[in-house]
């Protein structure tokens, strides 16, 4: 079985995160999995952004939930990283589905507050006939049963932080949520966790590696996990090629 190299916010170590450029550059590597985040504007548009504010990743300032789509579209989402990327824009969810649909599987993380916009997310994916290409993820765990309630066909991923309670049965937490994918932080992941998740028919997708390279990436592969998100999909792709895991 191939290992899922999931480009975290696209090829985000080298290109502006959560932009179509970052997604394209990951696709150019042959990486068939993208991870990105959803926020909601004041006029109820789903956009691709990790933070609650636009401050870090654009030339603007303010909370996403206080800005209109047109205001956000007027911002530059590339120059914060380099002048080379001036002119990159914040994509909408619709634009991203159009761009990635049929080209990549997607890990879609719900970052917005509350559950009111979950139907909008699911409807957009279903409209594009991409249900089987997407897993809905969140750290806000109550969102995940709501996804399943609205449409049980959707895959869901529980993003978990086992270090917050080392004595907790985290695989049990995932099972109680009814998810399809167990998502522990990479440095908390153990062989016991992976084996128990697999015994219960859960995929294991780790997170939190960021710019870490080499041994940290290989450790997750050696534990038997099914995949992970990384800011450095180029490095992981080279490892997977060497180990015949593509």
Describe, in plain words, how this protein is organized in 3D:
The chain has 246 residues and is of the alpha/beta class. The chain has one domain: TIM Barrel. It is built from 9 helices and 9 strands. An 8-stranded parallel beta barrel has the order 1-2-4-5-6-7-8-9, surrounded by 6 helices. Strand 5, helix 5 and strand 6 form a beta-alpha-beta unit. The model has no long low-confidence stretch (mean pLDDT 97).
Which descriptors apply to this entry?
246 residues, alpha/beta, TIM Barrel, 8-stranded parallel β-barrel, 9 helices, 9 strands, 30% helix, 18% strand, globular
Brief digest:
This protein is an alpha/beta fold and 246 residues long. The chain is built from nine helices and nine strands.
Residue fraction in strands: 15-25%
> CATH class, anyone?
Alpha Beta
Q: Which word captures the global form?
A: globular
Structural class: alpha/beta
Radius of gyration: 17 Å
Can you list the strand order of the major beta sheet? 1-2-4-5-6-7-8-9
Major sheet description: 8 strands, parallel, barrel
Q: Supply the number of structural domains.
A: 1
Model regions low in confidence, pLDDT < 50 over at least 5 residues: none
Helix content: 25-40%
Distance between the termini: 8 Å
Order of helices and strands: EHEEHHEHEHEHEHEHEH
Mean pLDDT: 97
CATH third-level topology: TIM Barrel
The number of distinct β-strands equals 9
Count of DSSP helices?
9
Corresponding CATH architecture: Alpha-Beta Barrel
Fourth-level CATH superfamily: Phosphatidylinositol (PI) phosphodiesterase
